Amino acid sequence: MAKLLQVDFPFTGPFGSEMAGALKDLAVSITEEPGFIWKIWTENASEKDAGGIYLFETEEAAQAYLEKHTARLKGLGVEKVNAKLFDVNEDLSKITNGPV
Amino acid sequence: MAKLLQVDFPFTGPFGSEMAGALKDLAVSITEEPGFIWKIWTENASEKDAGGIYLFETEEAAQAYLEKHTARLKGLGVEKVNAKLFDVNEDLSKITNGPV
Predict the structure, then answer these.
(1) Domain B3-95 maps to which CATH number in 2.60.120.1680, 3.40.1410.10, 3.30.70.100, 1.10.3720.10?
(2) Which of B4, B45, B92 is facing A23, going by the closest CB pair?
(3) What is the pTM of this model?
(4) What is the enclosing helix (H) or strand (E) of B86?
(5) Coil, strand or helix: which one is A20?
(6) Is A42 strand, coil or helix?
(7) Which residues of chain A have pLDDT under 70?
(8) What is this model's ipTM?
(9) Nearest CA in chain B to A32
(10) What is the rounded CA–CA span in Å between residue A100 and residue B92?
(11) Residues of A near B (CB-CB distance < 8 A)?
(12) Where are the domains of chain A?
């Protein structure tokens, strides 16, 4: 069953198109991670927050990615990464058009 | 621009199909909220957590829903609701097949 990974962390930028330019290659590489299905990139410039919502094929794939990504973020100076791993309630998500 | 609303809270259940049976009418009603696009229902029975990832058409619609939903959750005994509102980085999300 697909697993949803919810990640956010304090981030001072860049945001928007500047972030997209800087992280395009990283985005391409993420699509090649084992078990990866999709990622929505999230950002809040006024709250100085960023993160991502991911869907992975399995819990193991999500956990392995999270370890790798957390280490990468720490290397970029991000000290505190908030991460939660969830099951998807597929019956309810189907009613509300959830893209899973 | 679409806004992503990330919500999670401590929850002791029901989960899975039992949750789906209990909350089906609520799910239908959520699809009728102003500016609603989709919701993925999230749950983690072992961590006793649940929540949702939502896409709304505008920040105002997301904020109005969040106020209504927080009050509803408090009525159900949920004391602490974690909520974050994000912009979506559309360029990066497009690369990673993000459904926005």
Answers:
(1) 3.30.70.100
(2) B92
(3) 0.97
(4) strand B82-88
(5) helix
(6) strand
(7) none
(8) 0.96
(9) B96
(10) 19
(11) 4, 6, 8, 15-17, 19-20, 23-24, 27-28, 30-31, 36-45, 47, 49-51, 53, 84-89, 91-93, 95-100
(12) 3-95
